[in-house]
Amino acid sequence: xxxxxxxxxxxxxxxxxxxxxxxxxxxxxxxxxxxxxxxxxxxxxxxxxxxxxxxxxxxxxxxxxxxxxxxxxxxxxxxxxxxxxxxxxxxxxxxxxxxxxxxxxxxxxxxxxxxxxxxxxxxxxxxxxxxxxxxxxxxxxxxxxxxxxxxxxxxxxxxxxxxxxxxxxxxxxxxxxxxxxxxxxxxxxxxxxxxxxxxxxxxxxxxxxxxxxxxxxxxxxxxxxxxxxxxxxxxxxxxxxxxxxxxxxxxxxxxxxxxx
Length: 260
Hints:
This protein is mostly helical. Helix content is 74%, strand content 0%. The protein contains 9 helices and no strands. The chain has helices at residues 15-52, 57-62, 67-72, 83-89, 95-126, 146-173, 178-207, 209-212, 217-258. The chain is globular.
C-alpha cells in the first residue's frame, strides 16, 4: 500500500539520493555508457571516409542523423518488469528525485556520450567541432536557403527531444511490454510528423493550383520551401515543443505516482 507520510517524502530534495538512484541503475546503464561513445566514433569514421572519398557532403553529414536514434531510444534501458519494478518503486528516494535522475540521464548524459566523441574527433580531424566541413555547402543550388536549413536543424533537435520524451513517458507509464510499446509509440509519432510535413506541401500546391502550371521549377521550389519554413517556424516546432513539455510532465507524474 502506498504511503503518503514517510521520512523521505517529507524531506528536502537531495542530490545524494539521486546518486543512490544512479547506483541502482548503473548495471542496467553500463552497456549504453560503453557502447554509445564507440558507436559515435564509428559513425564519425564512416562519415570521414565518405568525405575523404569525395562523396556527397550531404551523405557524409547524414551519417550523424543515425546518432539521434541512440538518444531517442536511450530510455529503453529503464524498461523492466517483475521484481525490478517493485524494487525500484521502494527505493528510499522521492519520486521527484528519481524523475530528476531520469531527465538528467536521458537529456544530458546520453546526448553528451553520443555527440561529444564525434565532435572531439571532428575537431581533431577537420579542426571544426561543428562538423561543418562535412556539410554540402552547395545546398543553395537545390533552392534551400540558409534560414530554411537553420530552421530544419532546429526542427531536428526538437523532434529528437519529442521522440525521447515520448519513449521515456511510455516506458515509465506502461505496466507491461514497455520496450515494445515505446518503440511502437516513437515510430507512430514519426509517421504523424511525416504526414504533417506532407500536408504542408499538399496545402501549398492546393493553394496555388492555378499558378503551378505557370511557375518555373525555380519559382515553385522557392515558394514551396518558403511555405514549409513558415509551417516549421510557426506551427510544427511550437506544437512539438508544447507536446514535449506535456510528455515530460506526464512521465514525471507517472514516476512520482509509482514511487512508494
